[in-house]
Every structure is written in C-alpha cells, then in structure tokens.
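Please predict the structure of the following assembly.
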Amino acid sequence: MTLTGEALQPSEFAVTAARAVADCADLSLREQAKHLANDGLLGVIAAHDVGGLDLPLAFAVPVVAAAGSGLLGFPLMEALLLGRALQESQPRTAEAVVSGEMLATIAWQGSVSAAREGESVVLDGWVARAACAREADYLLVRIGTSGAALVSTNSNGIVVEDATGLDLTVPEHAVHLESVTISAANILPENSWNVLCSDANVLRAAAILGSAETCLTLAQEHASTRRQFGRALSYNQAIRHALARQKLGLEGIRHAITRSVGDEAGALQRDAAFLAAGVYGSAISEGALQIHGGMGFTWDVPVHRHLRRVRALQAQGDASGVLAALGRRYVGAIAPASDVTASR
Amino acid sequence: MREIDMTVIETEPPAATATGDLSGEAYRVAMRRWLRANLPASFRSDSAAFSPPTLPQSIAWEAAMYRAGLAGIIWPQAYGGHGRTLREHLIANQEIGALAMPESVNSIGKELAGPIILAVGTEEQKRRFLPAILEMRDIWCQGFSEPEAGSDLAGLRTRATRSGDTWRINGQKIWTSGAYRAQRCLVLARTGPLEDRHRGLAMFAVRLDAKGVRVRPIKSIDGRESFCEVFFDDVEVLQSDALGAPDEGWAAAIRVLEIERATNRMYRAWRFENELRHLISACKADPTLAQLVAERHYEVRLGEIVVDIEVLKAHVETAVDALVNGDRIGARGSLAKLHWSEAHQRFAALALELLAQASLPLHPAVQVARRRFEAIYLQARAETIYAGTTEIQLGIIADRILQLSKGK
C-alpha cells in the first residue's frame, strides 16, 4: 500500500471516521457536512489548494467503510470524489465541498444530451441514482458518452423526483433536466469522469465492506447470545459454518480492496473489488438477516438497512453491466488457440 | 538414492542465480525466461505434444528447476536453499503458475517436510534432509491420515515405542499421496495413550525401504494410482530420524502448517489464470464456442471466474504482505484454502460445460483442452477434501477466527 512521506497509514483514519460518523447520527445533512469537514474527512483525497489532505485513494477506503458501518446518511463518496474531480477546473466549488459549505452529489445512472450555445451548454434528459439530490447544491450528470456536467440544482428546468429505491440511509433520486443552461466551464472531460467512476467502484466496495462487517458482527453476537434448545445458536454446526462462510466473504472483500489500491492495480482489480463486494456483501447481509430469524425481519434490527444499502450500491455501480464488460474484455484480449500450443 | 538419467532434461544454465544479485522485476524476467526456454513442450498440458512426464523426467525437471533458483527459494543457503525473500518466492510462483506445468512430485518434501524440519529439526537433520529434498534425491510423502483418523488427527492409532536409541512403529496410514514413488514418509505417530488426543504425538522421517513397510496403491477417480495405504509392521526408526521432541515437535509443526496452508503452491491463482486463458483460447478456435463465449451469458460466467481468481490473488498477496510485516498468519490459511478449492471446482465445471458444446469434428485445440479440463475437473473434486476438508476449514474459521462459543 502506498504511504505518504509522513508514513501516515490509511488505517489511522478509521477511528476518526467512526467517531465522526457516530456524531453525525442526529444532525441535518448540512450539519453533517460541516462536522465531517471539520474532522478533515471530506478532503482526504483532494489537493491541499482546496483544503484537502492530498492523500491516495487508499486513505478514503477506511473513511467510507466507517460510513457504511455506521449507516452515515450523507453522500460521502460523492463529496470525496467531487472535491478532487473539481479541484483544478473549479477550485472554489471544490473548496466549498471540502469545507462542507456546499453539498454536491453525482447522478450515477442515465445521461443527458448537451447542445452548445456560445459559451453556454443546454442539457436535456433524465438521470438517476443521485444520492441526497433533493438537498444538494450541485449535481454532476453524465453527458451522452463523453464527459460530465456540473449543474446547480437551483437552475431553471431541474426537477428532483421523490426518492425511490431500497436504500433508506442515503436516499437516491431521479432528476429531470429540461433545457438546463450551464456555463461551458462546468463541463468535466471524459477522462475525469472515467477516473471518478473507477475510484467510485473501490469506494463502493469499501462502503459494502463496512456494512458487511457490521452485519457479521451483529450475526455473531446474536448467534452467541440467543439460546434455543438449551444452547447458544452458535453451538450448531449449521450456524457455525454459515458464519464461517460469511467471514470468508468478508475477508475476500477486504483483501480485494487492498489489492485494488496497490501500486500495480488497474481497472481489472478495481472492478473485481467492487464485484466481489457486491456478491459477498449481499450474501453476508442476507445471511445475517437469516441468522437473526424473525427478529431479522423486523424494522428495528439494523441488518435490513445494511442489506438495502449493499443492494443499492451494487445497482448504483451497475454490477451486472460491469461483470459482463469485464468478461467481454477478458475474452476479447485472448487470441484463438493454434493447433500446437494453446496458452502463453 | 534412485538412479536418474539426468540427461532426460537438458537445460540452459541458471543464469538468474549464477550471481544471485537480481531482484524485483529483473528477477521475474530471469525466472520467466528460464522457464519458457526450458519447459519441454511435452510437459505442457495445453500443448498438443503433451505426454505426462515419467517419474525420472519429473525428477530431472524439478532438479533443474532447483538449480535455476526455482525451488528452495526462501530456504537458508546453508541447507541448499537460495536464501531469497518471500516476495521473490511470490514472483517465482507467479511465473511458475503462468505456464501449464506438471505438479511437483515432491511437494510434500518441499512444502511440508522441509519447512517442518527447518522449524524443529536438529542441525544434522537439516543438513542431511533438506539438500536431498531440493536435489530430488529424496521424495517425501505424508503419513498423517489413518483409517480411523482422517480429519480428526487426535484419533491417531499408529504407535511409536522407544527403546534406547531406536523407535518401533506399528500401524497403518492411508491417503498417502505418492508413497509408491517416495523414499521418505513424514509419519505422525502416538507415543502416549490414545486418550491423550493431541498430546503424545511425535513425527518421524521413516525410510520407505525399511523392513516392515508395505505400500499398497489405491486407484482414484481419475484412474490413477496416486495415493496409497502404507502399513508399518514393527518398523525400526533411529532416534536420529525423530523430528523434534514428542509434543513439542507436533506443536511446532502445527504452527508451520498454519503458514504452509496460506503459502503452499503459491502459484495456484496464476495457474488457474493459465487454465482460464487456455479454455478461452481453445473456445475461440472453435466456431460454435467462439460464438458462445461472446454471448452475455458466458461473458458473465467467465467474468465470475476472473473475479474468483482476482480474489484468490488478493488472499495470497495480502498473506505474503502480512508475513513480510511479521504478523502472525494464524488460521487465515483456511480462508484461502476454502476459497481456491471451491472456486476451482466452479471453474472446472464451467470449462466442461463449455467444451461439451464444441462443433464436430473437434478442433485439435478443443481436443487438447478437453483432455486437460476433464483431468482438472476430476482432480478438483479432491481439492475440497485433501489438506483439510471444506467442513474442517469452516470449523477452523468458526473456532479460531470467529471464536464462536461452543458452550452450553
């Protein structure tokens, strides 16, 4: 794992982040932004010039994992990524995001059309899976198949729909843009969007890791304390083996993330971390619900909130499409066998 | 020592280790070059020229690999090792895995007996046994399992009794892979009463040509006679062949086995990748299969195998990082073992499913792939059984990693 000159370790951020997330429990979205910013958590990967810490992505992993574990109701991943994505083209906006003055989010699904009119660009279309978009000041939307646009949510022609979807913690909104005019300076190039999406996959895996870890802890506690037939549930091999499988999945996510932020990691390692997190994270949270029995199906036991979050993150990152694309790229890169020797 | 025709394998000089000063990428390149220049086509199961190597060929090849710096990588130079780092061991294994190479006929010697001897052996034992393993003069097999003690080694009944400087061993071992070709067996035997369970166990390096040893091969589902029963009838073993003190030796061995479970056959993930690339290249040579692997259904399913392999690499690489940082590896080897054994079975089943849909007449590349993957499919069924079954690994994870209560 990459270290900074000061030999700071990513894991050192976990404790601070967990405490900050717990403190945010009863705060409004804007109060949370200020609180997280005061702890330096919104600018972990943003440049010093915009108030950030300028650390590698690996340092954002424990922060986002803590948010997942503590069910933080804030678009943290989006703030982290936008603080860095905007730091050069729009440093003042980036600074406002990093300092918690402004709320910014990203619509991960859908795209808009863009028509150039002089120094302005007019956007039209539908986007969705924008976390906390109703309260956000800015929204990043994908343009067709090239680049993205930062839009003020106060612009004329923007309608944020009511939240839909499974996730109760970080509600996702669809947004309709009808002839929304923005400055051409608010367009991010294709490369910035690609980096953002690639990093988002690692951070989604981190959020899922946090949720999955909490679910497994809850399941373990329940299995150790709940008694049936005169013994703790954990006495039963079926329960022990189910929990052991969940642990295998959890460590698979953790190691895949570690590998995805290593010096030699590329798109394959990042996609693999996200995909593994989706599969194992779902199994762990569903498994935890099952271990809790009837209690697991109640509103009060938080397992369902994690399950909802894991499934929402999996869909937000288009796990199914990413998996097919990964398979396609892998198959496409291999030449047909000759008659003599097949693989090299 | 068996007589070996070392001219069976003629190799280029081991340039990489002649100076021993290569590191990092230069080391990788040197290992890669040597392997690709020297691995005979007939040893490669992804080649039409493939023909399973004979025992003398395997011995000669592995001895050549050792001389090239590809065995005993992290063992001390005083005992014939190359004295390199664990990271270099990983690099070499990545290169070994990348080629369709036969499995070692002496993996028990190199990955089980050797590390145990390094941990608990006397200086004399280290100098006597370790170079012989690396030079392939001694092939070892593992005598742990018994008819009444498979997963539960505490139920061992093979008994060792001491009289002066001599031990007498009586009992029976089973599932002893490669005993028919081995010179030495790492025997775990009981020195105290059966009620002592894990206490009173001792390890011995028993010569298989000793009087009273009888080996009977067992035919396995792949048609091979690779594993055996081994009977010990009043077999004399000198104290100089006892490994570690009773009790202490076994406790130390358990610690070695923890590390071994996490690091043995470290090339596995890269070999699975070699298998996957072979499968896809064979499919792309056949018109029907080429079309199938381009469909979303198989893109997704092959993508799942890629993710399985990437996760396995992550398990291995983070275990190496942990060991390099001096962390205790504990029971985490069970996690990797559970993952790779099940992932390989999923992959092998997918390979069979795909190859069964090939066009007729079979393309030669598909014939080669079928032969390889049918063998892999059958052999993979053993992978969730040997080295601790899946159920045992789950139990270890529950007991030792999660520390789940078993109490009332």
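Residues 113 and 399 of chain B are 26 Å apart (CA to CA). The domain at 140-252 of chain B is CATH 2.40.110.10 (Butyryl-CoA Dehydrogenase, subunit A; domain 2).
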